[in-house]
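Recap from last week: sequence in, structure out.
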Amino acid sequence: MTSAAAFALVAALGFSVSGVCLKRALQYATPLTAAVISVAFTTGLVWVLAAATAPIGQILDRRIVPFLVAGLAAPGLARLVLFLGVDRIGVARSSAITSCAPLFAVTLAILFLGERPSAMLLSGVAAIVIGGALLSARGRGGGWRRRDLVWPLLAALGFGIRDTISRYGFTEPIHPLVAAAAATVSSLAVMAACAVVQRRQLRLALAGLGFLAVAGFAEGIAYLTMWRALAVASVSLVSPLVNSHSVFTVGLAAIFLRDLERVAWRVVVAVVLIVAGAAAVVRFG
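Predicted structure tokens:
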């Protein structure tokens, strides 16, 4: 396994841990509050690490602009709509639907970055997307509305845009930690603006703060490893692996969210598809 693939899989695990903690936190906070606080923790972690270990002066370089734009898409607006999805249809199903992000990312990379992934790599992407779609199917007694599927789907689009813009930014030399710092600060600006406009939606019980802190730190680690992977490898390799997080999320949800979510039998087939797809991406990427 290449270092880029390993970093991407670590990012997938980080996003999964973040999603499970977020579901717990939403018992005590509104989606907007959860987004603002978790993004603040993510930004704080990234900036501390960047200031301590990276040439932080690059933040003022013109080469940082693509990452500022990427941060507006995700973790900015995409994170907010994902939180809405988690609140309304659950973390396992939302995570599964965001597995469609590689479909957007690879398509954009082919159109705008000139990437030419192999047929076997594309088959791996397709397996991940199909596995995610299988998990999004509603069984009997599903206590959610189909129209709420639009929230994680919009998040998937945002994540795909983020990956493509970030990879474009790395065509010029820039430190991955500085890139992550730029993206998180623009994301925090988006969250702050939303909080000002929708301040009546800001509600938090103290019991949820710890879950949001863990979610923010886990997502911070995920973004750091994801951007490290994108700095050295193509979108076609990194995005499918990062978005295989639904495998980890469903497993964690079955263990830690048994009182909040029920994992259906489809998980077995979906996990096989997603794992097989991730393996194909690693092997042929």
